[in-house]
Amino acid sequence: MNAPVSWCSKKQNVVALSLCKVEFIASVEAACQGLWLESVLEELKLNYRKPVQLLVDNKSTIDTSKNPISHGKSKQIETKYHFLRDQVMKKKIELMYCFTKEQVANIFTKPLKQSRFEKLRDLLELKSPDVLD
Questions:
Q1: 3, 4, 71, 107: most buried by Cβ count inside 10 Å?
Q2: Is the bond into 51 cis (omega within 30 degrees of 0)?
Q3: What is the pTM of this model?
Q4: What range does the domain containing 29 cover?
Q5: In a shared domain, residues 39 and 86
Q6: What pLDDT, in 10s, does the model give residues 7-23?
């Protein structure tokens, strides 16, 4: 994997009533991290692919971020989360659909069977502690 990675874990400070809202809020957080990494890379004068690409496995989230018209599913999304929509419209962030089975981030967020866990771990190029000895 040839990309910078930033990872954090925190309890969300909002209650989401739909999967679309959950994914939208998570995408906003990821967009903020991506834009921060972009500024670090610019400061270091390193080349990187523009715009920042986020892989999202929820089509409703992608549609909501691209279409400024209010959808029924997005009525409860707070104004502060429309940051993502603005960044997509400015072409600073590009949301790309990623099948759930291909979503590498699931290793951090979902219970997985061992074979699936190992496949995602290998995609991240992580090694088991016993291999490091």
A1: 107
A2: yes
A3: 0.58
A4: 19-98
A5: yes
A6: 666 666 666 667 777 78
